[in-house]
Write a structure and sequence with these properties.
alpha/beta, binds adenosine-5'-diphosphate, binds magnesium ion
Amino acid sequence: MDLTTMEINLVKIGGSVISRESSENKFERETVRSIARQLHPFHHGLILVHGTGFVGKPPAITYGYYKSGHAAKKDYLAMLAIKDELRVLNHRFVRTMLDESVPVMPFGISHMFTEAMDALKPGAEQELRDVLSNGYVPVFYGDLIMCRDGSFRVFSSDVITLLLSQVFHPRHTVFLSDVDGVYRHGDNLDNPAENNLIEVLNAKVAAELERSEYDKNDVSGGMSAKVAHALKIASNSEKCFIGSGINPGVVSGFLRGENVLGTRIEAG
Ligand SMILES: Nc1ncnc2c1ncn2[C@@H]1O[C@H](COP(=O)(O)OP(=O)(O)O)[C@@H](O)[C@H]1O
Ligand SMILES: [Mg+2]
């Protein structure tokens, strides 16, 4: 298919959606299967990114790089073991997508993105365009990237999504998470109050949220970092949305243009 006429849709599936402490191998196979079925009709021009969730977060806390995003070289064996675990998570994700006939092709970040984590490497864009024009679905995942001195930095799946949006200018960019969207008050999310979900979020609304410290759970990542990335993406993408990856029908409904529950992100 000709890429100049192909609509690109970029879907980031949160680690909180694909993994759970209590599930077998920490992998939420049935949830990923449900997302695969929803995405199958849209697989032409689709790019997927997934997070690390319960595989990535516990070691980040243990080794003290959860907030800084930087892991010291002395822990290299542990870092390499974590990278291997993340690759296994990606393998499970890819296998589940293939089982549902979504023709995914996984890519490691260190081969496709610069070590500065600010752009695709030369040649990578063309490679991805070739993959897309053949009808295949590139898949990326959050990982640790090696610095030149042998230490490691977190390359988050939200950042990967931002960089891809800058290159591919998607029609839709979707963040699937374990909540229905962005809430005005993030302190009691197990029992969100009525009218707490923000339906349209722009820079003005985000500034008000920042003042109210709406994301009390997570200083380095979590929802406030996602919102900051999504606001940048909104200027590269026709539509940008944060919604549930767990409730069935949200991502397919959004891609079909339906008014599904979630938070639409608008530029400006
Ligand atoms: N105001 C808020 N609205 C929605 N979620 C919030 C808010 N504040 C904190 N959060 C937390 O952010 C989490 C989503 O971010 P994260 O755990 O990084 O998920 P993902 O796997 O989608 O990247 C939610 O599970 C929720 O606990
Ligand atoms: Mg996250």
